[in-house]
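Show me a record, fold above all:
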Amino acid sequence: MTSPASNPAPSSPAPAPASASGFKPEITFEDFAKVDFRVARVVSAENHPNADKLLKLQVDDGSGTLRQICSGIRADYTAEQMVGKYIIIVANLAPRKIRGEDSRGMLLAASEMPKDAAAATPGVERKVILLQPEAPLAPGSLVS
């Protein structure tokens, strides 16, 4: 029989380190559950006044107040193309200033190549694709 001192209670596993394939460390379900993913509709969009790679979006997130999000998608989408799109956003990301403009969230997009890899490889272009609902949903709809 072992004593409690020699057989401590199992603790939460340590997060796995990022692998050579570029995956980020493992997180717990509880950490993931803190992220508030929502459907939003882009109401207006314009080029960011202080950054060549950013668009400044005004989105309807269902809250009754437009939310501004700055996003580095200008190489792949024009401001005109964004208006009316339904997108997925992280609604509870802490606000931050990006090149002098407030950004209150983040839109979700995918790419086959990380930003830093594209920057380090001359002549290779990084393609970014928005993650969107298959059909329009009411702004503010939960994503899970």
